[in-house]
Amino acid sequence: MSLIGEGANLVLDYELYKHKSEANDTGVGELITARKLLNRVVSSHNGLIDVVAYDALACNSPFINECRNLNIEAVIRVKKSHILSINKVKKETNLKNHTHAWQDGNLRIRTYESLFYMDGVERPLRYIKIAKKNENGNRTQVLLMTTSMTISTKTIYMIMKSRWDIENSVFNNLKNNANLNHCFVHGGNAVEAVLYIMFIASNLFQLFRLRRLRNYVSNQIELVRLLLKGLYLVERKVVLVLNST
């Protein structure tokens, strides 16, 4: 789980999957693992999280009810679904006129929305269709649902837009600059400890760069290069070495 949007994309926490230990063991899937992680992060960081964004895997009543029980608003991607209420509200919304429109760079954005009820969820939900058209006339659309009745459609669009960038801003940074793709140790406790060290180091690195250096260093790789250069100069020039005597 990580922060999205402007500023540092910090890793808040993670949860390991429960693997299959026996032939008839189903293990624990992503959604159950995500709900467990969400509960732990909310209890550990009280008041920090008010909105959670997730992909279409969470488009179901158990996850929505979990968010509402935790007093968190959910913004969830909607794709092909076997849920009858989702299919019904899709057809209803396609017949409506757009509710909001704005320009995002070379994209013209129009939003369409409806209220609907999902089986197993007591209170109504918002279904939002975001239609995008670029200067060449190419059209795409994004389908979302949210528990919030107060967040503007433009803000919801920006939340999900930031969610799409999580691969570049979080995962790629951890794999390419923090060695997340390498297994340094084996064994459950050791693996968890190393992962926490990686996440803490990456968070501190990003906070230092964004809060102290601001625009002086463009990215993390450039900062590492400058640090290595500084260490080289310290090693080669005696006058730069601090004298503890």
What are the main properties of this structure?
245 residues, alpha+beta, six-stranded mixed beta sheet, 6 strands
Topology:
Layout: H1 30-44, E1 51-54, H2 61-69, E2 73-77, H3 84-94, E3 100-104, E4 107-116, E5 125-133, E6 139-146, H4 153-164, H5 166-177, H6 188-213, H7 220-236
Parallel strand pairs: 1-2
Antiparallel strand pairs: 2-6, 3-4, 4-5, 5-6
Helical run tally: 7
Strand content: 15-25%
Would you report the number of β strands? 6
Mean pLDDT over the full residue set: 84
Please give the radius of gyration in angstroms: 23 Å
Succession of helices and strands: HEHEHEEEEHHHH
Give your account of this protein's structure:
The protein has a domain at about 75-160. It is globular. The longest helix is centred in the C-terminal third of the chain and has 26 residues, at about 190-215. It has about 240 residues and is α+β, with helices and mostly antiparallel strands. It contains 7 helices and 6 strands; from the N terminus they run αβαβαββββαααα. The termini are far apart. The chain has helices spanning about 30-45, 60-70, 85-95, 155-165, 165-175, 190-215, 220-235; strands at about 50-55, 75, 100-105, 105-115, 125-135, 140-145. It has a 6-stranded mixed β-sheet, with helices on both faces.
